[in-house]
């Protein structure tokens, strides 16, 4: 078994509701995070406080890419949610981000559960620079889980929570 420790952070794939394609080409992904809120409990007469777990906070997931000009499923979903009057429910989707190894196979995958677009921004346009127009989409989400993917003989993959 080959070890890829530490893996490079430059080769990754994104799937939205299990589908790759034109909407999966991102230059940067950040916000894959999960943390406990810490609640302090004080007892009468005791100067020190007990620190106990509260709620789990996740994300937001942020993804950047070159500005897309053509309509796409992601564009339609973001428009539907961000221009909504909330007259109909927001449709959350699962997003998977996989870090790829040297052979292009997933090493680790993060599943972002019940995500929905909460912010869509365009980087500033600057006449004095020759840069690609970039858009950034931020997603609120309910949960982030991590799965370590282990390559098996003959090109198969086995996944286990990690």
Describe this structure in words.
There is one protein chain. This protein is mainly beta and 162 residues long. It has one domain: Roll (Pnp Oxidase, Chain A), CATH 2.30.110.20. Helix content is 6%, strand content 49%. It contains one helix and ten strands; from the N terminus they run βββββαβββββ. The strands form two sheets. Strands 1, 2, 5, 6, 7, 8, 9 and 10 form an eight-stranded antiparallel β-sheet that branches. β9 and β10 form a beta hairpin. It is globular, with a radius of gyration of 20 Å. The model has no long low-confidence stretch (mean pLDDT 83).
| Order of helix and strand elements from N to C terminus | EEEEEHEEEEE
Number of strands: 10
Class by SSE composition: mainly beta
Shape: globular
The CATH topology name reads Pnp Oxidase, Chain A
Rg of Cα set: 20 Å
Could you give me the name of the CATH homologous superfamily?
Hcp1-like
Low-confidence stretches: none
Distance between the termini: 18 Å
How would a crystallographer describe the biggest sheet? Answer: 8 strands, antiparallel
Sheet-strand content, in percent, reads over 45%
Query: How many structural domains in the coordinates?
Result: 1
Known CATH architecture: Roll
Taking all residues together, what is the mean pLDDT?
83
Helix content: under 10%
